[in-house]
Amino acid sequence: MDKPKCNNCEFKSKAAKYLNKAELENLAKNCVSVDFNIGEVIFRQGALSSNIIYIKKGLVKVHIKGPYKEQIIKIAKAPKYLGLPTTFHENINQFSATAIEKTTACFIDLETFKQFVFKNGKFAYEIIVELCNNELLSFRQCVNRTQKQIRGRVAEALLFFCNDIYENERFIIPISREEFGNLIDTSRESVSRVLSEFNNEKLIEIEGRMVNILLPGKIDNISRNG
DNA sequence: GCATTAACCACAG
DNA sequence: CTGTGGTTAATGC
User: Fold this and answer.
1) N or C end: fewer C-beta atoms under 10 angstroms in chain A?
2) What's the rounded Cα separation, in Å, for the pair A64 and A67?
């Protein structure tokens, strides 16, 4: 844990770029940066919090308790705000976040953050843009989870890792098969099966968690057509 | 009926 | 933690 120098932060959010010098100094005074190792909980559902959390670096899984089990909502890559949707009206976290890669997160005092929103329109606008994107994403995830079959959902998840997270056809799946299944709402067995199908069909190469997408076009097709 | 899809179980690395 | 095979239930021709 250390005091960040927000002024010349190399991971400054799009919104924070609109903060002036005085505001950035104020932010620095009311914010701490914390490093997390893989598997460490960044914030936990049910715990009290008066912070906005900004992921500067790393990869995080967002999860929430359902009626039966813990459910992974999404994988979120830095840079991104995470504590946002609930903290304005609630000071109890409504979901949890856990690091799945080495991650650095800033904990920003809620009152300080609110003042920026009240007084700096451009800052607030960028926050709204991020929220809108989040909402759109969760709408899409909702439709896809319900309407696509498992092959489509696995293909979609592979493309997500490939395009949105690693920007590379070769990558290492950052979660277990169990968690993969949880994320796309299916069993670990089905994930295993479909991945080896794709492997046998020469669409991907897979060895453990290492993936190489050989035919992104075909995978994209499967993803689209469910 | 028969085929497809996917979950659950069990067992082996 | 994974991969695979058998079984079972639901759904759609």
Assistant:
1) N
2) 10
State the nucleotide closest to A187 in CA–C1' terms: B7
Does residue A165 approach strand B to less than 7 Å at its CB? Answer: no
Which bases of chain B are contacted by protein, using any atom under 7 A from a CB? 5-10
Rounded, the Å distance between the CA of A187 and C1' of B8 is 9
CA atoms within 13 A on the CB side of A189: 0
Single-letter amino acid, residue A29:
K
**Any bridge partners for residue A98, and if so which?**
A41, A61
- Of all nucleotides, the one whose C1′ comes closest to residue A148's CA is B5
Provide the whole-model pTM: 0.87
For residues A45 and A64, is the Cβ–Cβ distance under 8 A? yes
Going residue by residue through chain A, which has 226 residues, state the pLDDT in tens, using 9 for 90 and above: 566 678 888 898 989 888 988 999 989 999 999 999 999 999 999 998 889 999 999 999 999 998 888 999 999 999 999 977 665 667 888 899 999 999 999 999 999 999 999 999 999 999 999 999 999 999 998 888 888 999 999 999 999 999 999 999 999 999 999 999 999 999 999 999 999 999 988 899 998 899 999 999 999 999 987 7
